[in-house]
Amino acid sequence: MDAYGHVNNTAYLAYLEQARVSMFFDRYDASFSGGTVVKHHEINYLRPVVYHPEPLRLELWVDQIRAASFRVQYDVYDGDTLAAQASTTLVTFDFGSDRPRRISPEERRILSAYTDEAAASADRAELKPAPAAPAEAT
């Protein structure tokens, strides 16, 4: 929590990570095990969120899949109000060679299930991260 009683902006990165890990890594142990690293985060804060025990709701989907990277989009809701929009570009990575690697066919299949095209026939993955402890003001 910051000096004004709002959820600190740095806490959002943890929320995004919790949702992403739940979406991909908790559900698909064998896939993505070759390694994935974050290349880029972008967050647009639309309104301040005052700390309360109810968790924020995150809706996330994949909007871009390339040869060795993919982008996850997020809508962050405080109750029914859109509080932030974000995106994360991730790169599949081979830690043994310390280089990016191609997305495997199995990973591509999993990622494709979370695209807007797949969402047309099913709802987006909706995940609720655990309430976070108030963050220190910086």
Question: What average pLDDT do the residues reach?
Answer: 83
Euclidean distance between termini CA atoms:
10 Å
What percentage of residues falls in helices of 4 or more residues? 10-25%
Please trace the helix and strand order, writing H or E for each element: HEEEEEHHE
What would CATH call the homologous superfamily?
Hotdog Thioesterase
**How is the CATH topology named?**
Thiol Ester Dehydrase, Chain A
Beta-strand portion reads 25-35%
Give the C-alpha Rg. 16 Å
Tally of individual helices:
3
Mind telling me which CATH architecture this is?
Roll
Number of strands: 6
User: Helix/strand/pairing class, anyone?
Assistant: alpha+beta
Shape: elongated
Count of spatially separate domains: 1
